[in-house]
Structure formats: C-alpha cells, structure tokens
Amino acid sequence: MYLDGSEAGLQMGGSLHISPTTTMDYNDSHTLLSGEQLIYTITIPLSTSIILANLVIILGIAWNRQLHNTTNYFFLSLLVADMCTGVTLPFIPLMGLNRELSFSSCLVAHIFPNFLFLAFLFNLVMVHYERFICIVDPLHYNNLWMHRSFPLALLVVWVPPLLYACLPAFGWNNWTGPDWDGCCCASSQNLTPLSNCSANATTCCSYRRVFPNAFIYLEVYGLVLPAILTIAGMTGRVLWITRGQLKDICRLHRSVERGSQASDQEQRLNLRYTRCVVAVSLTFLACWVPYLIYMHVCIAFLITDTKWSSTTHIVLSCTGIGSMAVVPLVLGLANKQYTEPAYKVLQKLRDRWRRRMRESEEVAV
Questions:
Q1: Residues 36, 187: Cα–Cα separation, whole Å
Q2: Deepest in the core among 22, 35, 171, 220, taking most CB within 10 A?
Q3: What is the tens place of the pLDDT at every residue in 134-178?
Q4: How far is CA 355 from CA 150, 217, 311, 346, 363, in A?
C-alpha cells in the first residue's frame, strides 16, 4: 500500500493515519486485479479450446490434398483469423478496464485485438458469400472474381480491417481530450490519479481515450451489424432455396410413383431438412445472440454515459465474443473431411492403447 508522506504520519497516541487518496488508490488497484482474474478465469479455457479446435481443422485441410482448392483456402483463412481471435480473446475484455500504460502500448493493446476481430468478421462474410454463390448461381461459380484472383480476395478481407483499426493511431482518438487531464488508471467510479504514474511515464489507458464515440458507432452500425445481417440473410436465402428444391424433388418423386401420399424417402428428406433448419437456428441463437446482446448493451450505456458493473461487462464481453468465435468451428467440425485425419490419429492411438492393454493382460496371465 502506498502512503503519501505529506498526508500520512504518526499521530498523537501512536496511531497511523492513512489518507483518503491512498485508500482509493488501493481500491482501484484491487478492483483492477480482481477484474483481470475474472477475465482470465473465463477466457483462458475458452481461448485454449478455440485454438486447439482450429489447429485440428487446419491440419486436417493441410494433410488432405483433395481439399487444396480455392474454397477451402478461404475457409483456411477464416480458421487462421479465428485462431488469432482465440489468442487475443483474453485481451479483448481487458479493453473495458482502465490500466496504466504508455501511449504506444495503449494503442497496441486496443488496435491489435480490434483488427483481428474485424479480420475474422470479414473472412466469415467472405466464406458465407462464396458458398452462397455456389448454391444460388452454380453455373457462374467458377468464374467468380475471388476464384480468378485469390490473392486479391485475401487482401480484401485483411487489409480494410487493418486500415480501419489503425485509424486511432493516425489521429482519430481522444487522447488529448481535456476531460482526461489528471486521469491515470482511475476506476470506473473515481477519477483519482495514482502517484506513481508520472514517475513511470505512463498514463490512464482506456478505450474511451483510444476510440471516439463516432468510431465506435461507425464500427458497430457500419461494419459489424451489417456483416451479421448479411450472413443471416444469405443463410436464410440458402434455406429457402433448399426448401424449394426439396419440394421439386418430392413432386417429381410422386409423379414417378404416381401416388398422392408422401413416401418414406420424402419423409426422410423432410426430416433431414428440418434437422438442418433446427441446427442453423440453434447455432445462430447460441453464437450470435449473446454477442448482439453484449454489443447493444455496451452502446446503450455508451449513449447514456452511465456507469455499470465491471463484472457484468466482463461476463457479457467474454461470452459474447467467445460464442461468436465458435461459428467457424461449427462449420469445420460438421465437415467429416476436415476432421477425418484427426479421427484416424485418435483411432490409431486407441488401437495401440488397446493392444498394449491386451499384451499386458496376457503377460500377467
């Protein structure tokens, strides 16, 4: 605990007087440490799972030469972006905490995770668009511009997020705002400067200093929300087309069989389509709805400029961003071609373990 010599000393009777500033500094530091511990407790297991699952799918694509085509290259780019998002997942909720960092370190701590998040979102839109065109317009699928110039498509999904995320480094920030004079690592409730900030040449690092409100509004309602709605619209359109094709198949089947009732094959097709719709709906509810709730709650508090519990913010941010990062894993793990190499490795390990257990039992007998 830090004691200010001008305000703390031995009083009459031998009692030690601690200044109010010292108490608030200690509470701020304790709140910051507890918030970081909660973030790491939630995000480390989730981040590890995301990284390992992405590595399994990436190795599955790399080992299977039949999957070395443009479509899977786009998905591979998405997996790399998702793995990077998993690496930076513990640092994204930290952006909501006020920390003591230098100007350059504060910019890196905010810009780099934001860039990887936007790159992940752009890659996700590109993968959905590429598969959407494959279903909607299969005749012109191979003539798409992204297939003719794959490096250009990669630049489209990686360079614009980088440029937009770096705008605060180019001057679009609130670092020199008058409201931040004297603020150094203050808590969300008190703006009391810590005494060792000037000695360490550090300042209060907060997302409000790095990202202006206009920047946040533009990213949320100009990039993130349109991207999510585009993905949802393309997915709904694909399901609608699939439903129409299923009806045509059932109609042709009935005309060949010359029957008015649905056959067992038609019922199996309808059941498979129903399962597909349920799976897509549950994936959207589980992966996108938590992030949408977190995003709009943050915007609501930002507009009203009200303080809210750091624990609530941490839990919402961790679950929202973590659930969204699971979307590529759902797409990848649902494809047996991606997971077949890992399945074969696990099967070999299982057979080897059973063989050793059998040999040990025979030796014991």
A1: 13
A2: 35
A3: 888 888 777 888 888 888 999 999 999 999 999 999 989 888 765
A4: 47, 60, 50, 14, 12
| Count of positions (residues) in the chain | 365
Q: Which residue has the tokens 């910019």?
A: 107
Report the candidate in 81, 48, 77, 76 with the shortest Cα–Cα distance to residue 62: 76
Residue 16 sits at φ, ψ, to 5 deg, of -100, 125
**Calpha distance 364→110 (Å, rounded):** 61
Distance from chain centroid for Cα 156? 20
Contact in structure between 81 and 120 (CB atoms under 8 Å): yes
Instruction: For 109-119, write each residue's pLDDT tens digit.
Output: 899 999 999 99
d(CA 88, CA 90): 6
Structure tokens belonging to residue 206: 């907060």
SS3 92: coil
C-alpha 242, offset from chain centre: 29
CA dihedral 72, 73, 79, 82 (to 10 degrees): -130
Residue with tokens 């679009």: 172
**Residue linked to tokens 């030690």:** 16
Q: Establish how many alpha carbons lie within 13 A of residue 7's alpha carbon, considering only the half-sphere containing its beta carbon.
A: 10
For residue 50, give the amino acid letter.
Answer: I
Place of tokens 């992940």: 120
243, with CB counted inside 10 A (0-12, 13-18, 19+), is middle
pTM: 0.77
| Alpha-helical regions (H) of the chain | 20-63, 70-88, 103-136, 145-148, 150-165, 197-200, 207-210, 213-219, 225-257, 264-287, 289-304, 310-324, 327-333, 336-364
